[in-house]
Amino acid sequence: MSNQCAETLTCLEGNCTCRAYEYHNGLSCQTRLSYGGSCSLEISNQCADTLSCLEGSCTCRADEFFNSGSCQQRRTYGQACSANIANQCIDTNVCLNSQCSCRDAYFYNGTDCQTRISYGGSCSLEISNHCADTLLCLEGSCTCRGDEQFNSGSCQQRRSLGQSCNPEIINQCANSLSCLGNTCICRTDQYHSGTSCQRRQSFGQSCSSGISNQCADSLSCLGNICTCRTDQYYNSSFCQRRQVLGQSCSPEVSNQCAISLSCLGNICTCRTDQYYSGSSCQRSSKHFFSVSDSANAMWCPMRSS
């Protein structure tokens, strides 16, 4: 029987319905919407074949991309792709050199792309790009190179001698340097050799006058040897000012008395063949005898009769 179905409807398999490329909007058959057209979930088959109504728009499902008028399965790692076609590779991949590859923040684990490992995480040298950007896989752990430190999510060059630093950031200063007073310097018991901090030289050890602070505290580099200044003596720990005339001393300590004085009877004084001139001990070719006064034992030349 002709015209049995209402306008726009077609009799298919005993039912009045819309044709395959149409949908019914409640009143009549309309051409199904193409990619990007506005749609409603309340209306069945509103979008064209392979398209789905998602968030009010005819589009492909998340695991598909639109190409040549239809939705196609998105490509996985290693499959061929075209950079001109959007979303052709799955989310964790990007089309590089006509092949789906892991995005920058991902690595390929042999099955799929996974998020790259962050600082301190376990890693394997057998897996390319296993660690996040700037990190290296060293001894099974994602870390920075020896001349770098980790700060604010990335590896940064460690600070050199004299540069500013933050004591709360680990390893911010270069090899052997310490962050003291917000500056990268050597510790107080060290000096900088030009490349690294070295332990300061102790009494009697060799030194170079061109290197600052090479000798331990109170010592001076004299004649390429760490020693005390001429007005000082070494007390087994540090340099002290040499004792003057009449001050106590110990005969077991070298150079404890000022120049020309000797330690006799635990007192810094002149030898028996000398007299004190007011600044130093002087030798006299004449005979001497001792005369005591309230302050010091002085030596005077004997007058000949």
Give an overview in words:
A hairpin with a 2-residue loop joins strand 13 and strand 14 (about 140-145). The N and C termini lie far apart (about 175 Å). The protein is mainly β. Among the domains are: about 1-75, no CATH class; about 200-240, no CATH class; about 245-305, no CATH class. The chain has a two-stranded antiparallel sheet. It has strands at about 10, 15, 20-25, 30, 50-55, 55-60, 65, 70-75, 95, 100, 105-110, 115, 135-140, 140-145, 150, 155, 180, 185, 190, 195-200, 220, 225, 230-235, 240, 260-265, 265-270, 275, 280-285, 290, 295-300. It is built from no helices and 30 strands.
Explain briefly what this protein structure is.
It comes from Plakobranchus ocellatus. This protein has strands at residues 10-12, 15-17, 22-24, 29-31, 52-54, 57-59, 64-67, 70-73, 93-96, 99-102, 106-108, 113-115, 136-138, 141-143, 148-151, 154-157, 178-180, 183-185, 190-192, 197-199, 220-222, 225-227, 232-234, 239-241, 262-264, 267-269, 274-276, 281-283, 288-292, 297-301.
What features would you highlight for this structure?
305 residues, mainly beta, two-stranded antiparallel sheet, two-stranded antiparallel ribbon, 33% strand, rod-shaped, disordered C terminus
